[in-house]
Amino acid sequence: MKLPRTPSFKLTDKVALVTGASSGIGLACAAALAEAGAKVYLAARSEDKLREAVAELEARGQSAVAVALDITDVETTARWIEQHGAFDILVNSAGQARHGPAVDTRMEDFDQVMNLNVRAAYFLTCAVAQGLLRAKKPGSLINISSQMGTVGGVDRSVYCATKHAVEGFTKAMAIEWGKAGVRVNTLCPTFIRTPLTESTLADPERMSWLQSNILLGRVGEVEDIMGAVLYLASDASSLVTGSAMSVDGGWRAH
Fold it and tell me: Where are the domains of the chain?
């Protein structure tokens, strides 16, 4: 009897681009990919934080490059990606939120969140896919979505709208590029402890509400994302595309 072997989670000789990589989920994703052997380009607007992260990764003997990049500048981002060849892996973790009652939504807040979470994410995914298609290479493109990409949330109308949009274009792109071996998926976290969620998690009433909705009884840590993104980036998920992978502690099972 010949037993099957688990497909490799190793990313040796792979090149990855991670946006929003200066902190939080993006930084954790970059660390996970680098640890698995990928050469990782860490992109964000905060170059100082990126350099610090790259220095720590290099101190571990891993391969990393800091890139000051504002992905809302779609044309500049596309040119940069074209100049740097085909990326085997994309993790798009750049995003923001402006929470509040729907009736109080300001147009400028709506436009700013849509511009980064949807417009920039859409064209970034297209630019990386174009590089793979030109090179006739397979690849794994991962958009960091949210549990709010399939459900609603109080004071989160704009944020939910953007993440529902990400879920939609991810599925459509997966259909379009599947035969070329380019996989496109989303990763959908619950509330993760990062600098962006500090104020929410510091409120005892909100924390109690969160814990009552997360079946496992706790909010997430960035380490909870690392195994999931490694799975989606690696050959272990070679038959997975057009999917939304939940890391939500059971939130959406309600």
Answer: 15-246
- Residue 142 contacts residue 124 (beta carbons within 8 Å): no
Q: Please, which contacts does 164-172 make with residues 24 or more away whose CB atoms are closer than 8 Å?
A: 165/117, 165/118, 166/117, 166/118, 166/121, 167/244, 169/122, 169/125, 170/125, 170/143, 170/145, 170/242, 170/244, 171/242
Catalytic residue among 41, 122, 159, 231: 159
Instruction: Assess whether 231 carries a catalytic annotation.
Output: no
The neighbour count for residue 214, using CB atoms within 10 Å, is 19
Fold for 15-246, please state it.
Rossmann fold (3.40.50)
Task: Tell me the C-alpha distance between 251 and 191, whole Å.
Answer: 10
What global pTM score does this model have?
Answer: 0.95
6-15 mean pLDDT:
96
